[in-house]
Write a structure and sequence with these properties.
It is a single chain. The chain is of the alpha+beta class and 433 residues long. Helix content is 57%, strand content 15%. The chain has 4 domains: 180 residues, no CATH class; 31 residues, no CATH class; 118 residues, CBS-domain, CATH 3.10.580.10; 78 residues, Uridine Diphospho-n-acetylenolpyruvylglucosamine Reductase, domain 3 (2-Layer Sandwich), CATH 3.30.465.10. A hairpin with a 2-residue loop joins strand 10 and strand 11.
Length: 433
């Protein structure tokens, strides 16, 4: 009886060892292993080789699967019979009349008992340990697995060859399998959210990372300063014009146009304007620095690359007709990720709640941002800004006090600028009972 218990325990432990090895190599944090490997830890270096080489990883997992299969077969073929033989006498003593009936009952009981032991101690427990302590488990178990892999190499080689052949027959390539380890921006955002919920990331760090993942989905049109809101200077502007413009809109750089705002020729630094003011001269082409142009459909990563290549802080955004749609700056891109802390940002952000809890939204805010602040999904196919949304619903220039409702969200205009909305109040409509 003692020998039977020892054999069952050994087979279950072996099964658990291989299960832990399989889950640990898949779930181990690669960054942590890379750091250990770079620090010179030999075992970590071996693990890193397995993680970064799909062929090595295939052999590693095949060895684990082979071990699980052999241990399970051994447990079933040997242990079931031996346990059943010992249970027969127990059931006969309980009054089972015939040996056939007692043996059948003993076989069923043996299978049930071994299945329970196998699942709990050979599968569930080692799997949980391997997933919760993947790094520690893989560092401990890999040397053992590499030795077993060497011993079983011929059989593992045959199994891998047959497996790869079957995968090719159903159209799965090695390259496609390697891509399974890559993550989409949505999956990365989910990982960040889970890490934040688990206390691994601060709330602000998580928010910034999620904004970065969405960075490439936004376009220049969504973040630019529209043409009608530009604080621009004309060529030939005198000191009085410059002083008034800087007073009303204190920035470090200003777009410059010639004749019409559609003809932006470049930008001028406020330091140069101060020199102009002190000398009493006018704004000349020699003071203007060239800036690149980008289409309004350009994504923000393209805009950033354009600004970097041109060594510029500002770019002109061109609409589909070739006219000036607005201007986008480094600060606009920065604001999308970090928030409105750049130059010229108002004391209150574009979306904020006052002391009464009322949500105030600037007209230049994106529709999606307003929806997020309200805790709802808010989108419009034709327009990007809240001002554009209100104009579209109204069908005319807005006035202070105008109220519109779109997708169960109520907007009340509180301030207008030109023909657009400068600010408004937004709230989710409460459905009537």
């Amino acid at each position: 009886m003692t020998m039977l218990i020892v054999i069952v325990a050994v087979l279950v432990l072996l099964n658990g060892l291989f299960v832990a090895a399989e889950f640990a190599i898949v779930g181990t944090p690669r960054v942590a292993i890379e750091k250990r490997a770079a620090a010179g830890e030999r075992i970590a270096q071996r693990v890193h080789q397995v993680l970064t080489d799909s062929r090595r990883q295939d052999r590693y997992i095949a060895t684990a699967q082979l071990g699980i299969t052999l241990a399970s077969l051994g447990l079933g073929m040997y242990s079931e019979h031996e346990v059943a033989e010992r249970l027969v006498h127990l059931f006969e003593g309980l009054g089972v009349a015939r040996y056939v009936a007692a043996h059948t009952l003993a076989s069923v009981a043996a299978v049930a008992l071994l299945t329970y032991v196998h699942i709990v101690f050979g599968e569930m427990v080692p799997k949980s340990i391997a997933l919760q302590r993947a790094e520690r488990t893989v560092l401990w178990i890999t040397p053992v697995m590499l030795v077993l892999q060497t011993i079983c190499y011929p059989l593992v080689l045959v199994l891998n060859a047959l497996g790869n052949l079957l995968l090719r027959l159903i159209g799965v390539t090695r390259q496609e399998r390697s891509h399974e380890h890559l993550y989409s921006p949505e999956e990365l955002a989910y990982i960040v959210t889970e890490s934040q919920a688990g206390g691994m990331l601060r709330e602000e760090s998580g928010r910034i990372l999620r904004e970065l993942f969405e960075f490439g989905d936004l376009t220049a049109r969504e973040v630019m300063t529209p043409r009608v809101r530009l604080a621009a200077l004309p060529l030939g502007a005198d000191a009085a014009t410059v002083t008034e413009t800087v007073r009303k809109a204190p920035y470090t750089r200003y777009p410059v146009y010639e004749g019409d705002i559609d003809e932006l020729t470049g930008m001028v630094n406020v330091k140069d304007l101060l020199l102009l003011k002190s000398s009493g001269a006018v704004l000349t082409p020699a003071m203007v620095r060239a800036i690149p142009t980008v289409p309004e459909t350009a994504t923000l990563d393209v805009v950033l690359e354009t600004l970097r290549e041109a060594r510029a802080q500002m770019a002109v955004v061109i609409d589909e007709h070739g006219g000036t749609a607005g201007v986008v700056t480094h600060e606009d891109l920065f604001d999308e990720v970090i928030g409105e802390v750049a130059e010229g940002a108002s004391e209150k952000t574009s979306i904020y709640r006052d002391a009464r809890g009322v949500l105030h939204v600037s007209g230049t805010s994106r529709v999606e941002e307003a929806g997020e602040a309200l805790g709802v999904t808010l989108e419009h196919e034709a327009v990007d800004s809240v001002s554009g949304l209100i104009l579209t619903v109204l069908g005319r220039p807005p006035h202070v006090g105008d109220v519109v409702t779109y997708d169960h969200v109520r907007f009340e205009v509180t301030e207008v600028e030109g023909l657009g909305v400068k600010s408004c109040i937004a709230e989710v409509e409460t459905p009537a009972i």
